[in-house]
């Protein structure tokens, strides 16, 4: 297991060595407090609305099959290279920084930030998700109300030549591939209303312990994955509705060492908009 998902003690010992990104809303960051040294990058600031995604499609990183990675419909998609550059520069973050992200929702919004950073070229080995969230952190660790002052940086976006992103045609082909398992990370009722044919359901929250607000023990997670046929020797292709929830599952599977992960950024929003077939029921 890697240090992609890191415990609070790991972070507390490195407060002076890492850049901490709080992805909660500004009112939470300012009014409730935050991890010392954190900078606030609210979730809404790094997801594109429909028009932004359409305007910036050419700047989005592409998938390994050459598919367009940036979806052009729905909420929660990649913000565009220029927008992300400005966000990171304003936060005083450089491309060389080691980043720890957190939220107060079991890590799902923080994971989306980390996935976005990785797709725009930040070294994945320098991106970490706090195991747990702010509510868990403040039970045993110091919080701050003052805002740390960082000078503006000149963040450089440099998307890698290959990313885990796949487009809609690659997803359709994967539904007939015995070496690929297509995973729907939404809730059960959503899955029953309609899902990509052949997909298996894995609600992202199943991997989270509600009491600790962090990940379940590794053996419990592996048991759940094994039950669904989500094995390390398979190519695992993830989707949800708008690519938020798959970000958490993607991060957890990377943490567990799964070697072949595919990320359908368009997710079910794009799939339905394109008129593709859906299966219903459990």
Shape type: globular
Helices and strands, in N-to-C order? EHEHEHHEHEHHEHEHEHEH
Distance between the termini: 32 Å
What is the number of independent domains?
A: 2
Low-confidence stretches: 50-59, 63-76
User: What level of helicity do the residues show?
Assistant: 25-40%
CATH class of the largest domain: Alpha Beta
Largest sheet: 5 strands, parallel
Structural class: alpha/beta
Q: Round the Cα radius of gyration to an integer and report it.
A: 18 Å
Mean pLDDT, as a whole number?
A: 90
In DSSP terms (H or I, runs of 4 or more residues), the helix count works out at 11
Strand order of the largest sheet: 1-5-4-2-3
The CATH superfamily of the largest domain turns out to be Rhodanese-like domain
Oligomer status = single chain
Question: Approximately how much beta-strand content do the residues carry?
Answer: 5-15%
Please tell me the CATH architecture of the largest domain by its name. 3-Layer(aba) Sandwich
| SS elements, strand count | 9
Query: What is CATH's topology name of the largest domain?
Result: Oxidized Rhodanese, domain 1
In short:
The protein is an alpha/beta fold and 282 residues long. Helices cover 31% and strands 11% of the residues. α5 packs across α10 (245-256).
Structural account:
The protein is of the alpha/beta class. It has two domains: 5-140, Rhodanese-like domain (Oxidized Rhodanese, domain 1, 3-Layer(aba) Sandwich); 168-273, Oxidized Rhodanese, domain 1. Helix content is 31%, strand content 11%. It has eleven helices and nine strands. The strands form two sheets. The chain has a five-stranded parallel beta sheet with strand order 1-5-4-2-3. Helix 10 links the parallel strand 8 and strand 9 (261-263). Helix 5 (108-119) packs across helix 10 (245-256). The radius of gyration is 18 Å and the shape is globular. It starts with a strand and ends in a 9-residue tail after the last helix. Mean pLDDT is 90; it is low at 50-59 and 63-76.
């Amino acid at each position: 297991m890697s240090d992609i998902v890191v415990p609070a003690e790991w972070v507390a010992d490195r407060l002076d060595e890492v850049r901490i990104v709080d992805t909660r809303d500004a009112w939470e960051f300012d009014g409730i407090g935050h991890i010392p040294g954190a900078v606030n990058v609210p979730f809404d600031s790094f997801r594109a609305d429909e028009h932004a995604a359409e305007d910036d499609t050419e700047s989005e990183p592409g998938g390994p099959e050459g598919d367009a990675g940036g979806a052009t419909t729905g909420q929660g998609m990649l913000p565009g290279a220029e927008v992300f550059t400005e966000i990171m520069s304003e936060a005083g973050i450089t491309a060389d920084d080691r980043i720890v992200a957190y939220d107060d929702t079991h890590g799902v919004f923080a994971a989306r930030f980390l996935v976005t950073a990785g797709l725009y070229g930040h070294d994945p080995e320098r991106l970490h998700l706090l195991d747990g969230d702010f509510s868990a952190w403040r039970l045993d660790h110091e919080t701050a109300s003052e805002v740390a002052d960082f000078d503006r940086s000149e963040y450089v976006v440099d998307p890698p030549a290959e990313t885990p992103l796949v487009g809609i045609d690659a997803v359709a082909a994967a539904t007939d591939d015995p070496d690929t398992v297509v995973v729907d990370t939404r809730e059960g009722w959503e899955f029953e209303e309609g899902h990509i044919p052949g997909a298996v359901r894995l609600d992202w929250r199943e991997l989270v312990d509600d009491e600790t607000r962090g990940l379940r023990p590794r053996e419990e997670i592996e048991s759940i994955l094994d039950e669904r046929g989500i094995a390390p020797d398979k190519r695992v292709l993830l989707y949800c509705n708008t690519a938020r929830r798959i970000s958490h599952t993607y991060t957890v599977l990377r943490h567990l060492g799964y070697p072949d992960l595919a990320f359908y950024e368009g997710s079910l929003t794009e799939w339905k908009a394109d008129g593709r077939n859906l299966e219903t029921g459990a």
